[in-house]
Amino acid sequence: MLPTLEKGEYRFNHSMASSTWLKVGGVADVLFKPHDINELIHFLQSCTNTPKTILGNCSNVLIRDGGIEGVVIKLGRNFSTVDRISDSAIRVGAGMLNSTLCQHITSTKNENCIGGIEFIVGIPGTIGGGIKMNAGCYGKEFKDIVHSVDILLEDGTMKSLVKDEIGFKYRGSNLPQNSIVISAVLEVSEHKKEDVVNKISDIMHLRTQSQPIKERTAGSTFRNPLPLKAWQLIDQVGMRGARVGGAQFSEQHCNFMINIGNATARDFETLGNIAIQKVFEGTGIAMQWEIKIMGRYE
Ligand SMILES: Cc1cc2nc3c(=O)[nH]c(=O)nc-3n(C[C@H](O)[C@H](O)[C@H](O)COP(=O)(O)OP(=O)(O)OC[C@H]3O[C@@H](n4cnc5c(N)ncnc54)[C@H](O)[C@@H]3O)c2cc1C
Fold first, then answer.
1. Among this protein's residues, is 171 annotated catalytic?
2. Whose alpha carbon is nearest atom 21 of ligand 1?
3. Is-catalytic flag, 91?
4. How far is the CA of 127 from the centre of ligand 1 (A)?
5. Tens-digit pLDDT profile for residues 181-191
6. Which residue of 35, 182, 184, 222 pairs with 230 in a disulfide if CB–CB is 3.0 to 4.6 A?
7. Distances (CA, A) of 266 to 63, 92, 148, 297
């Protein structure tokens, strides 16, 4: 049962393949884009029994070919704001893309700009997805820059959590189940703009060299079984470049799966599960998916 439809934007039987980085996945029964927080609260309070899935930029998800039951929520444009709230903090909407935030901080005409968050530029997700995943690279993770977050619980109640209450862990967090990150306060510092711009461009250069970022991919497929690296294990069992249908482990970075043709979600899931099995048989290590697999089988 959906609330009165004039509040927010609804699309029915919405194909998710066009939104996901892997370019696979069936339809969402309903896609809901609230224009503002009141619409989202109204929705959560009205649709208590409908299954709901919050998604950001879909850069870390594998949506199965049968699509997603219930309502997929994507935060609209009004959840992409940035406000400087002190010398050392900004409040950012959870729907903002990491790369857009980096463009924003360097767009000032001043000699100085805020920095300390440059590592997020190469992570192609939103602030909300980055917090949920505790995304990170080059020695820094969201946990190092988040001061606090505002979330909506599944009953529509607003709650603020400081960093220690978020339960950040390696590529994950312990946010309350089905909660939605609405905004975050990030810790920043003042730097010479030239230094921030150079750092951002170095990071982008490094990524182009080491990762297939122009491909249809969802980034690292498996968590690193620390201190080991997932790519080394995949390589060791001979799965660099291995294929199932249109899904392949990248030759360039073999913990990345890429869509080389008309892959299906099943191709990706099967390929990943073969790697898990081979690595387990070969090394005794049980790799864990970093990509979030969701939805119905076709
Ligand atoms: C080319 C490429 C490179 C990548 N490199 C890195 C990297 O270096 N480091 C790294 O850590 N990751 C990397 N990733 C993976 C991915 O970009 C990150 O995990 C990213 O933070 C996911 O954000 P998203 O907005 O796309 O989330 P989605 O993929 O849409 O969702 C991921 C999870 O977050 C949840 N979620 C999304 N938004 C919210 C919200 N507002 N509130 C609560 N939960 C939410 C979803 O339910 C889902 O469980 C890479 C991916 C690609 C395609």
1. yes
2. 130
3. no
4. 9
5. 999 999 999 99
6. 222
7. 9, 36, 38, 8
